[in-house]
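Reviewers of the previous submission asked for a worked example of the structure-prediction workflow described in the proposal, so we include one complete record here. The input consisted solely of the amino acid sequence. No template or homolog information was supplied to the procedure at any stage.
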Amino acid sequence: MSLSPIFRSFSIDLLAVLVIAGAGSIASAHPDHDAKPRAYDLADHFRPTPIPDRVVLTWSDDPATTIDITYRTAPGVEPTLCQWVEASRILGDHASGAVPESEQTEGTSEPFTSDRGDCLMHSIALRKLAPETRYAYRVGDGVNWSEWHHYTTASRDAKPFEFLYFGDAQNAVRALWSRVRREAHADAPRAAFALHAGDLINASNADTEWGEWHGAAGWLNATVPTVATPGNHEYFIRKLQLTVSDHWRPQFSFPLNGPEGLEETCYWFDYQGTRFISLNSNEKQEEQAEWLDRTLSDLPPARWTIVTFHHPIFAAAKNRDNSTLRELWKPIFDKHQVDLALTGHDHAYARSGLGGPGDQMVGAENAGEGVSTKEGKTVYVVSVSGPKSYPLGQAWDEPRSGSGIQLYQVISVDTGSIRYRAFCASGELYDAFTIEKDVDGAVELIEQAPETPEIRK
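From that input alone, the workflow returned the following structure tokens.
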């Protein structure tokens, strides 16, 4: 059927009107093509909800038979529950996500107020677990649950393992540190834990910064336990008193075996034959020296001893020195033959040979007084994982150093050796060595650093 000329004319005119109207609508929907996007406040992204977030694994007791879980929700989300089961036995309901075979443990919660508002912090302690066993767990209030996570308990025996070590993350954590944490996981997917040598964030009580730190690691914090020592940026002044971040203890459950007043910042634990010690270099250094000497004297000897603290005994950055720490702590490290000292703070990289940098540092601009001779066997490391960088000071007699570089370390521990590897953020090997110890305790350091040029800012 053919259309009449009048109808054809009407149709064409109507189509033209619609096209013009449509063009106007499109134009009005995008009135300014040069307008900039509006900045989204990350604080909104990090607001708590009924769904558990910021799930973190830590130890306050024996890693072979226990684990502690902390997490966050919106206010009023209770009770605090954990369902857990051996991972090999999971056969979950495909509709609900529940695992009928799981056991359930109830924990505790406490209200928490940050600069971004109120939330509820939860803590659960799982005990009497079987050594060398992989478990699956989830946390929630009985209705709103996290996803199921895996965690593997340690062995009671001195078996090989590896762990991750990070210097300061501190700045641009979401933007620039997250890639470091994730690259480290790609290199060591079965790491026993992640050790942080302080300054995880920049402002001690800034909840958005803590949100960035939790978000950068994401689910890794829920399956790889965290070991952390506080840096100066985890501290603030309250009523003229130096005080650790309000976030520290609610979100981490560390051992309570340190000096009074330094709970969960100065502590020790053993993992598969190796002793790990966190020292708090921000305060009460003399009391910790006495505690460290007494503790290492009283405890049964361990095959290896590794300490971590924030401020390095031997500074790496220009115009820095921590002579008081060196005078108080290094003689104890020497006396008890500490193997590794893992630190941060200087936003640069430097690593000594056995016993530290040695006498040639006396008189250097960043050395100060009180440098003891190489009587000990400790290897001292200063590292940084975040983007902030300081220029190096006068060089040690160090095998490897660098600045303007983000790094992570993979440290593999065996009965007779510690293998240390430092990697750039993009995964290239930057430094490496192996410490070997024979049955009589004699120590040898084998240099394995690559021949690539050192990086300097």
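The first helix runs from residue 5 to 29. We consider this example representative of the routine output the project will generate in years two and three.
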